[in-house]
Design a protein that fits this description.
The chain is mainly α. It is extended. The mean pLDDT is 77. Helix content is 45%, strand content 0%. Helix 2 crosses helix 3.
Length: 84
């Protein structure tokens, strides 16, 4: 559990649970998330995991777009309309 110690103040450490990220970064679940949430949402592991997967997917797609270029990337939507 050493990788979890002092995660609040050490950026090289990880929180034990995704819901703990909200203690440090209340905006990590998206813009205006706080205004649309209830107290129960702060302990919703599934919601946090869903956001993490969405965020990771977007970041990976951004890396691919940067690597292959906008024009080639845009052609993906032509060939795979279900993705759009």
């Amino acid at each position: 559990y050493l990788h979890n110690q002092e995660w609040h103040s050490n950026e090289k450490r990880c929180p034990m649970f995704l819901t703990q990220i909200l203690e440090i970064d209340p905006g990590w679940l998206g813009e205006d998330w706080l205004h649309q949430s209830s107290d129960a949402d702060f302990y919703d592991d599934a919601k946090c995991l869903e956001y993490l997967h969405r965020w990771r997917t977007i970041k990976l797609l951004q890396e691919v777009k940067e690597e292959i270029g906008h024009e080639v990337f845009a052609r993906v939507w032509t060939h795979f309309p279900a993705v759009a």
